[in-house]
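If your schedule permits, I should be very grateful for your opinion on a structural question. I have a record of one protein: its chain in single-letter code and its fold written as discrete structure tokens. Kindly check, if you would, that the fold set down in the tokens agrees with what the sequence suggests. I remain grateful for any guidance, and I place the record below:

***
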Amino acid sequence: MSISDTRGLSTIILAAGEGTRMKSKKSKVLHKVLGKSLIQHVINAAKYAGSEKTCLVIGYKGEEVKEAIGDGVEYAVQKERLGTGHAVMQAESFIGEEGDILVLYGDTPLITGETLKNMIETHRKEQNGVTILSAIVEDPTGYGRIIRDESGNFVKNVEHKDANEEELKVREINGGMYCFQAKLLKEALKELTNDNVQGEYYLTDTLHIILSKGYKVNAMIVKDTNEILGVNSRAQLSEVTQIMKRRINKKFMDEGVTIIDPENTYIEPDVSIGIDTIIYPGSIIQGETVIGEDCIIGPNTRIEHAKIGNDVSIESSVVLESEIGLSTTVGPFAYIRPNSKIGSHIKIGDFVEVKNSTIGNHTKVSHLTYIGDADVGANVNFGCGTVIVNYDGRKKHRTTIEDGAFIGCNTNLVSPVTVHKEAYTAAGSTITEDVPSRALGIARARQINKENWVDKKNNR
């Protein structure tokens, strides 16, 4: 039974906790793992699994969560923290009479959409009232246990503190994620009580309420126990980051990308990389970056929200929100700032900075040059030490350098100015006026040598 041809699916994500062990001024669920907040990873997994709408139950720093996540989801507020069942109660108006509903946690970023899909399919195939995501672990201490009968049927969920000697030996634990028939969840929430030592409403009590009404409850064992890991401290944040990093890097290696040192390479989940590209250690690839085939990235390179063509080499450099064409080399120690479009067969050498500029094919910018707010044509050569002076103290201005121009070493181009096609500038010039096509622009004082100047200086 596929998800697409059955009843609708919604998701409630619990995100009201304070997360005191994080020792942070911001909401726990907004801390990031490889570029995305904890809760955004969970939202994305639910969407991948087919969830049509999502409700976040917020509390501590709730307005901050709203601002970060935006209008793509609905919100419910838990003003008092009175247990997981109480949290879900706050979203009662979100729960419909038909379809299924996932209940997830906002601090479990390793849960995958594929696992949630499998849980939903199991839930519907077995016609369960509720399906629990469980895991088998080496050390179940502190976790609720899934107790089954001799035939493997779910009998009950028992908390560690309430378990007897035999139940404590059980290694199948409740992973804390559920798929409910929406109507049954809504009915069960009305029967929850806080008649316990903590005075809280437990979501796990709904399992026994639904079971008591004659509906089937079962647990699906997750293949990778890491998927249920929650983040409650900075150490756990680091732990899940390492797990996700390894998961992503393995995916790329399986797809034909060479990663020299996976432990020291950080690639975010929305990145795309073509086959036979090689990633060297220390590289950080972020955002919705697209890298083509046969590229060499790194070592020690950072690329964010960029589009990189095939056969590009980027060494020890930073590329932000820009495009680079085919067979171009960048670095070492280059800085490509946002809104730059660099063409094909170009050399951007050491200690070159490019900002908000276009650079045409076959142009060479070999070293020690700043190009800001400029439109550069094809087959242009920049001498060492060129600076485009784009800021007058109040406004930015653009410079145009047309095809085939040759910019001499230590040239200052004071914007706005145009160096026309195949024109030259003399080394050491400060160009403040347009240079005509095929002309030589010279803007420097004539050299004067003062004979015996040193002797006169020393005799003063």
